[in-house]
Every structure is written in structure tokens, then in C-alpha cells.
Amino acid sequence: MSALEKSPETAGRAPLMTLGGVSQVFHTKAGPIRAVDNINLSVNPGEVLCLVGESGSGKTTAARMAAGLARPSSGEVAFDGTDIWALKRDDFTTFRRSVQYVHQDPYASLNPTRTIQQTITAPLLKHGVVKTKKAAVERATELLAKVDLTPPENYLSKYPHQLSGGQRQRVAVARALTLDPKLIIADESTSMLDVSIRISVLAMLGRLRDDLGVGFLFITHDLAIAKYFGWHGKTAVMYLGRIVEFGPTPKIINAPTHPYTRALIDAIPEPDPDLTKTKGRESLRSLEIPSLAHLPSGCTFHPRCPLFEDGLCDGAVPELVTIRSGQSAACHVVARDGVAALDDEARSDEPRA
Ligand SMILES: Nc1ncnc2c1ncn2[C@@H]1O[C@H](COP(=O)(O)OP(=O)(O)OP(=O)(O)O)[C@@H](O)[C@H]1O
Ligand code: SF4
Ligand SMILES: [Mg+2]
Fold it and tell me: Nearest ligand to the C-alpha of residue 187?
């Protein structure tokens, strides 16, 4: 039995993917930067985990490590309970097939010299999913229909430049499905699309999530999109390489406990009655995001935080601790005072949805 195969007794027990104390340090001209700093995350089979944070917070760096595209500087990445960097070559190949990455820019990720048929049939044939070219074309046709490119025959002979952005992203998703993945990492996969197209691509991804039972690591800078896609899953909020809040998505959206999550929700421009907007909430002390090369001491959010306490927040780095059932935050003040540190509206123990 290979390291990635599980006996019936152990199957389903381990999370599908785990990042355990994972860090990634880049050596830049400005000195070493810790793009991801000691994060712990896991995705269970069929579960959605949303990773949310501003640009530069380390989402893609974390996702590349989860996909085995980059080796962590420290910590362990495990798939089906096994350290992926301890796998033998064949098992590593099996792992790489099980995790598919859908990038932000479908144009950059599709080979411009290949037709859609070639793009989708190549992995099917290369990995022996089907035996003949005819079977590969049939499967490609099915996959295009799955991502709502209909009639699929109209798309097979086209090149990426002949498609719209939304159609290209659907092709990228169809290609990701060729090898029957257990986990799809969708990294800002809809952020480059126009709003109306974004909604239809998100709806298509949601249907795949429900129909295929595949796990999702869903990355977005937009909490409103995390709410839409990951409502029945969990959300982790990243700030400057660290997880600052984690919990079931409805709790993160409706009853956030970390001042940074609350600021992200306040920054959502569109009115949405489900999103917590606290009247009179104190505003950020600064809009400037510190450089990873010169991180503030203690809690790295302290130069911006409305709840900042001198001597406490700029001292030690706050640990991620449970604030209330299933919801954790890395904040000295909230850990000390509980949600009483926040205002009345956020004090509710139950999300309003
Ligand atoms: N290969 C690299 N070498 C040096 N620095 C890097 C490298 N890759 C990422 N970084 C830096 O690491 C930090 C985190 O980058 P990352 O791309 O993971 O952020 P992100 O949250 O995905 O941002 P965005 O929302 O803009 O995609 C950034 O400061 C980035 O400049
Ligand atoms: S530790 Fe202090 S600075 Fe950091 S989020 Fe909490 S209150 Fe704000
Ligand atoms: Mg990114």
C-alpha cells in the first residue's frame, strides 16, 4: 500500500491537507522576509477553507506550499496525513495530481499555442486517465459541459485568445478537473473577471463544490466573496504572514473578534445586510501596511489598531487562542477581556445568519 493510500479504518480520519507550523522566508535585497510565519491550517475532505487577507499578506505563498509547489522554510505540509516532502517520487506525483491549482490569471496559465482540446486532453493522456485519443476528446467534452461551456464542441478547436476571460477561467477549471482532484486551490480565481461574469463563474465553482465533494482552499482578498463561496466552511484571516483569526465563516462574517477582521468587514464597499457594520466603531489609526522587512514589534497590527494598548500590544507576539467555541483570534486585548473588549454589536455569541 503506498503512503497515500489509506486502509478503510484510517480513511477519512486525517484532514486532507494540513499546514503544521509552516513558515516561508524569502531572502530579498531589503533582507530576509517572513512571508508566512508559523501558520497552522487544515482542510478536511469536501470542506471549504477560505484564506482571506490584504495584498501581500502571504495567501499565495501559503497556497503554493499547500500545493507542493514550494517547500516551506520550516514546518510540515501533510496530505492525507503524510508529510509530502517525505514522499517517494511516485507518491509525490500522486499527491500533485490530487491537488490542483487554479490561478488568478487564466490567460497566463493556459498555453496560447494549444487549442482547448489539446489543453484538456494532454493531462488525461499523459497520466493514463484514458487510453485513446477518442476517449480523451469525449472526456474533454464532458468536462467543458461541467464548467458550463456549451455546446462544448464549439470550444474544442479554439485557442485561449479566442475566448473571453470568464471562458478562459472555465477552461482552467475544466483542466483542473481532468485528474479527479481531492483538493482545488482557487487563488483569487475570479478577481480578474468583470462582476457579472465573476458571479456566474463563482456559481459554477459552487456547483462543482457541491456535486463533486472536492475540498477547496479558496483564496480571496474579499470577505464578501468568502461569505458567498465558503459560508458552510471555515475562514482564516491572514495579516502580514500570520493567521489572526480563524473560525466558521458565518462567525467570522457576523461576529468577528479580531480588530483586523472587523476593519476588513468595515472596508467592504457594497451594502450587505448580513455583514456586521458596527455603528461608531473606532477607525484604524493608520491605513499604511508595514513592510515585511521591518515588522512592528509584538502584534504587527498595533500601529493601525484602534484597540492598541501601549506596553501590551507592542510587546510579545499574540498567540492564536480560542475566544469562543470554534473561533480563535490572535489579540492580547480580546484574549484578556473576551468579546467585551469589542462593542455591543460584536458581543453576540451567535452569528445573525
Ligand atoms: N519569490 C519571492 N521572493 C521574494 N518575496 C516574495 C516572493 N514571493 C512573494 N514574496 C513576498 O511575500 C509577501 C507575500 O506575498 P504573497 O504573494 O504570498 O501575498 P498575497 O497575500 O498572495 O498577495 P496578493 O493578494 O497580492 O496576491 C509579499 O511581500 C511578496 O512581495
Ligand atoms: S493585540 Fe493589541 S494591537 Fe493587536 S489586534 Fe489586539 S488590541 Fe490590536
Ligand atoms: Mg496572491
Answer: 3
